[in-house]
Amino acid sequence: MIFYLLKIFFGYNTIEKFGTLYKVSMPLVIIGITFSICDLVNSIKKKKKGIDIAMITVFVTVFIILLLIIEPNINKANAIYIPMIYFIAKAICFIGDRFKIVYVLAILIYTVNFLFFMDYYFDEYTKKENYLFEQDIMDATKFAESLNKDNVYIENCLNQTYIYTLIENKLDSKEFIETVKIENNIVVGYGNYRFYYSNDIDKDGVYLLKTDNDKYWNLINNGFEQKVFGNFYVLYYENN
Q1: Against a cut of 0.70, is the pTM above it?
Q2: Please, are residues 237 and 225 in contact by the beta-carbon 8 Å criterion?
């Protein structure tokens, strides 16, 4: 388990090319922890208080808590970033005070890593891991909103489908809280949104489906128009 946690901190369960805080940071974290422990020992001997004890305490505490989690991952260890960044800064400062060029190199290295990360994340990564972004349903929701129908029925086919719709319809949080309906810990509706289908066809509603299933063909056969957004169909009845 300890080896598994080390893999988490050193880049596993993240974007493999870059790791958590860029792979170049990991040796600096180890150096920073070493210096922090030395400074902590010295401050204890001199009976002085310092920030090192707080950072080491947070780091060790999060590490121990992760040992108690069945499926630990970096998303459950966000608090670990604060001491890790501190350790990185401590290592850079310690080395930089002795070799000034290190400060310039650190700025250049992190700037280059950042630029490569941004380029990869917003281009190749979004195409490769498109299921994490689901732009199609957001575009479909935006179009559905423009139709001004009484109800919006959406196939609950994604993880927390309702979140993607909230991004586009910009519903007031108070209205969401007052109207949300939850069944078995799943949001099945809020406002005029329904994440389920009834057997009856609502011609005053708009339907969002990810698959051309029986419901899709039933709507088409009943005169519904359609507009396609990637993997999503938006079906609506055009009143004459």
Answers
A1: no
A2: yes
